[in-house]
Design goal:
2 helices, mainly beta, 88 residues, 11% helix, three-stranded antiparallel sheet, globular, 34% strand
Length: 88
Amino acid sequence: MSSLAHGKNTLSVEVTNISMHGVWLLAHGKELFMSYDDFPWFKDQPVKTILHVEEQSHGHFYWPEIDVDLTEQIIEHPERFPLKAKST
């Protein structure tokens, strides 16, 4: 007899730190840093907005209140993705 997992794993991604320099995510055991210089959308947001992150698919993160979605690749290598929207 085997056990089946119930419900959805809600801790696949979480914000672990917000500082004056940026935001840290923990996803699948990997820590990712998003500096405000590279990801300006987060800089002046309320904490609850930044904390509300969803993983749409493996390595694809979405913040619904600010309509920002980023992949793990973009977070790890922002220099490869030079086009940025301006923060409001």
